């Protein structure tokens, strides 16, 4: 159902992700909105790792709601507010993603809806129905 695409004519991925992921025979597709590092009680931790964990835990809950898990994720989009957040974000992402590694994009943005937010994550997941 999923086959990573990392052609030898394209530089190898910088981290644990695939340049492309061919998904065949899909009947269920789940797309999340961006999830921010905010707890259900509206608290926002100051550190990037804690925010990233909250983002991925929110995604995990959404996936469960759709009868899926991280093995069904085919694409991750991450957004951070500082280049220094890259390694921390990627380490958290790598703890959650499964093989074959999904396609992944990471962008630096100038900010989110509230200044205390440092990370946002959205995913696309697919599986046979």
Q: What tags apply to this protein structure?
A:
129 residues, alpha+beta, 60s Ribosomal Protein L30, Chain: A, five-stranded mixed sheet, two-stranded antiparallel ribbon, 7 strands, 22% helix
Describe the structure.
The chain is built from two helices and seven strands; from the N terminus they run E-E-E-E-H-E-H-E-E. The protein is globular. The protein has helices at 48-65, 86-96; strands spanning 2-5, 20-23, 28-31, 35-36, 73-80, 103-108, 119-127. Strands 3, 4, 5, 6 and 7 form a five-stranded mixed β-sheet that branches. Helix 1 (48-65) packs parallel to helix 2 (86-96). Helix 2 (86-96) links the parallel strand 5 (73-80) and strand 6.
In DSSP terms (H or I, runs of 4 or more residues), the helix count works out at: 2
Spell out the CATH superfamily: RutC-like
> How much is the average pLDDT?
94
Q: What separation lies between the terminal Cα atoms? A: 12 Å
Q: Do you know the CATH topology?
A: 60s Ribosomal Protein L30, Chain: A
Overall strand count: 7
**Helix and strand pattern:** EEEEHEHEE
Number of domains: 1
The level of helicity is 10-25%
CATH class: Alpha Beta
Largest sheet: 5 strands, mixed
> For this entry, what is the oligomeric state of its chains?
single chain
- Kindly estimate the percentage of residues that lie in beta strands according to DSSP: 25-35%
Rough outline = globular
C-alpha Rg (nearest Å) = 15 Å
| Model regions low in confidence, pLDDT < 50 over at least 5 residues | none
Helix/strand/pairing class, anyone? Answer: alpha+beta
Q: Under the CATH scheme, which architecture would be assigned?
A: 2-Layer Sandwich
């Amino acid at each position: 159902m999923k086959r990573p695409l990392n052609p030898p004519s394209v530089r190898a991925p910088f981290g644990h992700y695939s340049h492309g992921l061919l998904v065949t025979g899909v009947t269920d597709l789940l797309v999340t909105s961006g999830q921010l590092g905010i707890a259900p009680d509206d608290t926002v931790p100051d550190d990037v790792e804690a925010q990233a964990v909250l983002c991925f835990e929110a995604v995990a809950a959404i996936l469960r709601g759709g009868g899926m898990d991280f093995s069904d994720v085919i694409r991750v989009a991450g957004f951070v507010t500082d280049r220094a957040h890259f390694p921390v974000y990627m380490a958290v992402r790598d703890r959650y993603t499964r093989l074959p590694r999904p396609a992944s994009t990471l962008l630096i943005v100038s900010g989110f809806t509230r200044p205390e937010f440092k990370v946002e994550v959205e995913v696309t997941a697919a599986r046979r129905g």
